[in-house]
């Protein structure tokens, strides 16, 4: 977790404490699952801005400050995913290829079955 994300997580935890609600009660107010909220409060995932804004309202926080923290965390998250300079990370490329291989195979199978169906329909 980067520095800006850590700052956002600390603020979200403070908002939760200020709201005085359980995770389940918060999930009903924010309209996300309690497991998602748990990941947000643990810093394992970056919440959508709408969730942060609702938590800010519930905990009496400063929208401008939290938006600044959220924007910074979002920017660092994007930069971590897509580095702007340097050689590509070979392990990331290989991992992406492994994830896409089954999808490509299924697409090829669907295309082939469609071509066969079309050819049989032309008879």
TrEMBL record:
Q: Which CDD domains match?
A: HTH_XRE
What are the UniProt keywords, alphabetically?
Answer: DNA-binding, Membrane, Transmembrane, Transmembrane helix
Taking every annotated instance into account, which residue ranges of this chain make up the domain HTH cro/C1-type?
12-66
InterPro entries, A to Z: Cro/C1-type_HTH, Lambda_DNA-bd_dom_sf
Q: Which Gene3D superfamilies match?
A: lambda repressor-like DNA-binding domains
Does the record carry DNA-binding as a key word? yes
Ranges annotated as spanning the membrane:
100-120
Gene Ontology MF terms in the entry: DNA binding
Keyword Disulfide bond appears in the UniProt entry:
no
The record's section on SUPFAM superfamilies has: lambda repressor-like DNA-binding domains (SSF47413)
Q: What is the name attached to this protein's record?
A: DNA-binding XRE family transcriptional regulator
**Species per Swiss-Prot/TrEMBL record:** Paractinoplanes abujensis
């Amino acid at each position: 977790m980067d520095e800006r994300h850590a700052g956002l997580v600390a603020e979200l935890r403070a908002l939760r404490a200020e709201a005085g609600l359980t995770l389940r009660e918060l999930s009903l107010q924010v309209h996300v699952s309690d497991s998602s909220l748990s990941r947000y409060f643990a810093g394992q995932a970056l919440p959508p801005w709408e969730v942060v804004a609702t938590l800010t309202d519930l905990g009496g926080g400063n929208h401008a400050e939290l938006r600044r923290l959220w924007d910074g965390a979002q920017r660092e998250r994007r930069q971590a995913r897509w580095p702007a300079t340097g050689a590509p990370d070979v392990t990331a490329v290989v991992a992406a290829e492994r994830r896409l291989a089954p999808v490509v195979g299924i697409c090829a199978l669907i295309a082939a079955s469609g071509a066969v169906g079309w050819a049989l329909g032309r008879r």
